[in-house]
From TrEMBL:
PANTHER family: BENZIL REDUCTASE, CHAIN DEHYDROGENASE_OXIDOREDUCTASE, PUTATIVE (AFU_ORTHOLOGUE AFUA_2G15740)-RELATED. The keyword NADP applies. The lineage of its organism: Eukaryota, Fungi, Dikarya, Ascomycota, Pezizomycotina. Belongs to the short-chain dehydrogenases/reductases (SDR) family. Gene3D superfamilies: NAD(P)-binding Rossmann-like Domain. Transmembrane segments: none annotated. The keyword NADP applies. Keywords: NADP, Oxidoreductase. This is Short chain dehydrogenase.
Length: 307
């Protein structure tokens, strides 16, 4: 057999190998944490994963923490008070041990940037990972724009924007350090970051939430790409609720009894939301079910911003 024939046979073998690889690539499924059909709702399973929820002592933050625990996650709730109130204690009693989740309370002022970063780093180191963080700590002050003081502006921005940035920053550092696969950060914004709520005189709150929505886009651009060392790949999104009956909102109603009626009339469903109606959305954002979602703002407002 001469050299020309041998060369032709070699070329044919190479072509055959290349074709086989191309066919294999075209038919191979996208890599997943769980194979299809392996477990019911596997994409929503948080067993063995670690999460932090700021503002987790009550209201929306606590409801989100409960959702993650119900899915099997270990959840650290950060809040400013020394001990959680009865609402949190009741939630902890509802935890079903067989589901594998845990609810842990940590006193933490999110405005203390240095201690906040230390606490987040410590939790990640103790668990060897940090899979997700929900920055839900915030407060609202209803004051006419002409009456806002500089101190009031600084105070609100310190909680509603700066602490959210620091929470996300410290979490991303920990996630990259431990190369946590599929990590997710959710920053709770508001529909108030998209529209000027009729009759609701809270210009600093509204603008702080608009800033958080834009922050999510910017951080997603920086942190979502997977890096050569295996870090990165962090999804960053916002959850923007409409009007919810939370302890904070009920305090506003006490000051202005007519506000509740106005708010109800402003959405298509003719009612306020409950905190439990955001559990599914939070679980989606923290789980691998949202693995291709980043830099987005999930709005759940009863149709308020649709008209």
């Amino acid at each position: 057999m001469n050299s020309d024939v041998l060369m032709m046979l070699f070329i044919l073998q190479i072509k055959n190998i290349v074709q086989q690889k191309e066919q294999s690539t075209m038919t191979s499924p996208v890599p997943r944490e769980q194979p299809f059909g392996n477990k019911r709702f596997a994409d929503f399973d948080l067993a063995g994963k670690t999460f932090i929820v700021t503002g987790g002592a009550r209201g929306l933050g606590l409801a989100i923490a409960e959702a993650l625990v119900e899915a099997g996650g270990k959840v650290y709730c950060f809040d400013i008070q020394e001990k959680p109130d009865d609402e949190w204690e009741e939630a902890q009693r509802r935890v079903v041990p067989e589901w594998g989740g845990q609810l842990v309370y940590c006193q933490q002022d999110v405005r203390d940037a240095k201690l906040l970063e230390q606490r987040i780093s410590q939790i990640a180191d103790e668990n060897g990972q940090l899979n997700g963080v929900v920055a839900a700590a915030a407060f609202i002050q209803t004051t006419p724009a002409l009456d806002y003081s500089v101190d009031d502006i600084s105070s609100m921005l310190a909680t509603n924007y700066t602490s959210v940035f620091v929470t996300a920053q410290a979490s991303a550092k920990a996630m990259m350090k431990h190369k946590t696969r599929g990590a997710s950060i959710c920053m709770v914004a508001s529909m108030s970051g998209l529209v000027a709520n009729k009759g609701m005189r809270s210009p600093v709150y509204n603008s702080s939430k608009a800033a958080v929505i834009q922050l999510a886009r910017s951080l997603a651009m920086e942190w979502s790409p997977l890096r050569e060392d295996g870090s990165g790949g962090i999804r960053v999104n916002c959850l923007s609720p409409g009007h919810i009956e939370t302890p904070m909102v009920l305090e506003l109603f006490e000051k202005d009894p007519g506000m509740k009626k106005k708010w109800i009339a402003e959405n298509m469903m003719g009612r306020l939301a409950t905190t439990g109606e955001f559990k599914g959305a939070a679980l989606f954002l923290m789980s691998s079910a949202s693995s291709f979602m980043t830099g987005n703002n999930l709005v759940i407002d009863g149709g308020h911003t649709a008209w």
